[in-house]
Amino acid sequence: MADYITFDNAQALSYIEQLGEFFEPNAQLTCNEFGDGNLNLVFRIADQNGNSIILKQALPYARCVGESWPLTLDRARIEASVLKKHGLVCEQHTAKVLHTNDDLAITVLEDLGHMAILRSELNLAKTYPKLGADVATYLATSSFYYSDFYLKPAEKKALVQEFTNPELCSITEDLFFDDPYRACERNNYAPELEADVLRLQQSPQLLRQVAQLKHLFFSAPQSLLHGDVHTGSIFADQSDTKLIDPEFGFFGPIGFDLGSFIGNLLLNYCAQNGRIKETPKRRQMQSYLLTQIQQCLNDFENIWLALAAQHTRDLSLQAPGYAQHFVEQIIKDALGYAGTELIRRTIGLAHVVDIDGIEDDSARLQVQKQALLLGEQLILHAEECENKESAYQLIVSLIQ
Ligand SMILES: Nc1ncnc2c1ncn2[C@@H]1O[C@H](COP(=O)(O)OP(=O)(O)O)[C@@H](O)[C@H]1O
Ligand SMILES: CSC[C@H]1O[C@H](OP(=O)(O)O)[C@H](O)[C@@H]1O
C-alpha cells in the first residue's frame, strides 16, 4: 500500500482535522495514543468540550512482538467491515464505525470511553448484570444473519471471499491449536508447569479432539465471526455491552466465538481463586461468572432458534428439528473452543492479566494448573453434552 505511513499523535490529529467531519471548525483538539492491545495503535482525539472519537491504525507488524512479526494491513479493512456487517444486524452491541481509510489502515470509531473494558472490571470484581444476555444477543444475531439459514447461497459465497483473512486466521490456528500442544519457542510458562504441559502434550485423546477443533476452524464457514471475543474486546456498563476489535473476523465455526467468550469468563473464574482472599466475596464473584455463562448459553440457543423459526430462508434448512440439532452442535463446539482458550492463554504466547496479574507466585501457579485442567477436561468431554443444560452442568462439575 503505497500511501501508508504509521501515524504519531500529531499526524493522527492532523488527519482528523483535515477530514473536518467530527468537530467544530475552531475546536481545540488534543490527541493521545493509548492502545494496550497486542496489535494496533489506538488514538483518542478530543476537543475542549469533552467530545471525542477514536482513531485506530494497524501497524505493518504485530505491536506486541515488533517488526520481526510482519502482519497484513488488510486487517483494518476486515475489522471495520465486520463491525459494519454486525452493526447492520445488531447495532445495539456493536461499536460504530465513523470513517475508514484502507490505504492508511485506519478506522475511526465512536469513543466508548464512558464504558469500561470488561477484563479490567472483572479483575476488580465488578459485575455487569446484562453481560451474558447481551453477548448472547450479539453472537446469536450476528451468526444467524450471516449463516446459510438466512443468506442466499451466492450472497454468502461472495461474503466468504470478502472476509477471507488468511494471515490473522493463521495466528489463531498456531496460537490456539498448535503451539500449546508441542514444544514451541513462543510458548511461555513457568518451569513448575512442565509436568502439566507434558500431560497435555502427551495425551492422544486430547490431541485428537484439538485436531478436530482445528479442522472445524479450517473448514466450516458457518457464519461471519468476530474472531476474538475475549473480555478485552468487550466494553460494558450497567446498562449496555459493546463489542470492539473483530480484526480476526472470517467465515468460521459459530462455536468459536461463543467458546472464546465462555473461555474468558472461566479464565477469570480460575483467576479469582488467586485474587480474592475472602471466601464469601470470591464465591459471589465466581457465582456471578457462572450465572453469566448459563444466561449466555440459554439466550444464545433461544434467540438462535427464534430467528431460525421466523427467518430461515433456505427451504431444506427449515426441516423440523434441524435448527435445534445445529445449535446443539454449536454449543458442543463452543465448549471445546473454550477449553483451547483456557489452555492457550495459560501456556501460549498471549496470556491474560487476570492470571498473570496475580502477584503471589504459588497462588498464580495453582490458578494456572486449574485453568489447564479445566481446559483439558472441557475439550475431552465437550462432545458428550447433549444440550445447553448438560453443557452448563459439565462446566459446573469441572470447576467446583
Ligand atoms: N471505540 C473505542 N472507544 C474507546 N476506547 C477504545 C475503543 N477501541 C479501542 N479502545 C481502547 O484501545 C484499547 C486497544 O484496543 P483494541 O481494539 O483491543 O486494540 P488491538 O487491536 O491492538 O487489540 C482497548 O483496550 C481500549 O482501551
Ligand atoms: C500476536 S496476536 C496474540 C493475540 O492477540 C490478539 O488479541 P488482541 O489484539 O485483542 O489483544 C488475539 O487474541 C491473538 O491471539
Notes on the protein architecture:
- With 400 residues, the chain is an alpha+beta fold.
- It has helices spanning 9-19, 74-89, 118-123, 131-145, 153-162, 166-178, 194-201, 204-219, 255-275, 279-311, 322-347, 353-356, 361-381, 388-399, and strands at 30-33, 40-46, 52-58, 61-62, 66-70, 97-101, 106-110, 116-117, 223-224, 234-236, 241-243, 251-252.
- The protein has two domains: 9-110, Phosphorylase Kinase, domain 1, CATH 3.30.200.20; 116-399, Aminoglycoside phosphotransferase (APH), C-terminal lobe (Aminoglycoside 3'-phosphotransferase, Chain: A, domain 2, Alpha-Beta Complex).
- It is built from 14 helices and twelve strands.
- The protein has a five-stranded antiparallel beta sheet with strand order 1-2-3-7-6, with helices on both faces.
- The mean pLDDT is 97.
- Bound molecules: adenosine-5'-diphosphate (ADP) and the ligand CSC[C@H]1O[C@H](OP(=O)(O)O)[C@H](O)[C@@H]1O.
- Adenosine-5'-diphosphate (ADP) is lined by residues 35-40, 42, 54, 95, 109-113, 117, 232-233, 244-245, 247.
- Catalyzes the phosphorylation of methylthioribose into methylthioribose-1-phosphate.
- Keywords: Amino-acid biosynthesis, ATP-binding, Kinase, Methionine biosynthesis, Nucleotide-binding, Transferase.
